[in-house]
Amino acid sequence: MITVLSGGVGAARLLRALRAEARPSELRAVVNVGDDLVLHGLTICPDLDTILYTLAGLNNDQTGWGLAGESWRVMDELEAIGGESWFRLGDRDLATHLYRSQRMADGATKTAVSAELTSALGVDVALLPVTDDPVSTVFETALGRLSFQEYFVRHHHEVAVSRVEVLGAASARATPSALSAIDDARRVVLAPSNPIISIDPILQIPGVRDAVRRRRDDVVAVSPIVGGAALKGPADRLLFELGHDVSCVGVADFYGDIVGTWVIDEVDAGHERALRQRGYEVRVTTTIMGRGANDAALASAVLS
Ligand code: FO1
After folding, report:
1. Which of 153, 194, 196 to mutate to test the pocket of ligand 1 (most atoms within 8 A of CB)?
2. How many Cβ atoms are within 10 Å of 13's Cβ, its own excluded?
3. Which ligand 1 atom is nearest residue 87's CA?
4. DSSP characters for 247-287?
């Protein structure tokens, strides 16, 4: 079993790359739920859905979220009557939120609904929310406290952040399937997702960081920072605003002693020594995924 601690786009692409190299049935994703929100009475799980759609081959590659071939009739109607339409929910995407919300109203857990959605879409990788309890990542900013999607979407993650907090993390329970996916894996992978707002909210759920640390020798992390910048999203800004070095070494220091091996991009080969001095194994390869050869090289660097 290979277990990937996963946020959104970066994790989805790595899982797609790993699925081509490993047996899909041995892949598990332990997924962040701190981005989740309730809007229009619907429970929306962006990281779970980004991975689900990507592995189903249905994702919208332009936006990085939602479904390809989308239409926006409901959003347009909603806007016309003065409803909230800043968080764009396509007509096709809405079916997922309607399904999940009804099933959770029936009493099903996020974990159970994820299993139903992966089988409905023919996805053979297990998507495991790290917790079925409510957690939400919030941002202290110059504009006051913002919810995840207010920060990320409404303000286009362009407002300076002084603090990030995962509300509910301390009292949330990691699911048994998430913990056993970490304990029983032959390899645990930290995906190149945002360390601060995608991976750390997973590690903050009680018991998870310790479970990963116990597996340190088999933990491989792929740096989300390449040449001092994030490939997508605000990871570089947030690292800087929260006082971390914006480099693969800064990310390694942020995660601390839970990683055994770092996979860094060729442009960061100069950092290999600093990482080895910190006691990490290091693999240098092309970590920028698109499709094709790079993905295979990265997947084998992670799996070897
Ligand atoms: N990201 C945006 O930048 N704008 C949106 O309108 C938007 C809508 C949206 C709807 C469903 C969904 O699952 C994700 C959506 N995202 C949108 C992405 C979302 O902000 C994710 O949290 C990010 O991808 C970070 O993981």
Report:
1. 153
2. 25
3. 6
4. SHHHHHHHH-TT-SEEEEEGGGGGGHHHHHHTT-EEEEE--
The total of structural domains in the chain comes to 1
Tens digits of per-residue pLDDT, 250-262? Answer: 999 999 999 999 9
Does any domain span residue 293? yes
Per the structure, the complete domain to which residue 234 belongs is given by 2-37+124-143+146-152+165-303
Is residue 245 included in any domain, yes or no?
Answer: yes
DSSP H helices in 56-189: 73-80, 91-105, 110-120, 148-149, 176-183
Contacts (Cβ under 8 Å, ≥6 apart) of 162 = 140, 141, 241
> 230: domain CATH number?
3.40.50.10680
Give residue-wise pLDDT tens across range 203-212: 999 999 999 9
Report if residue 65 sits inside a domain.
no
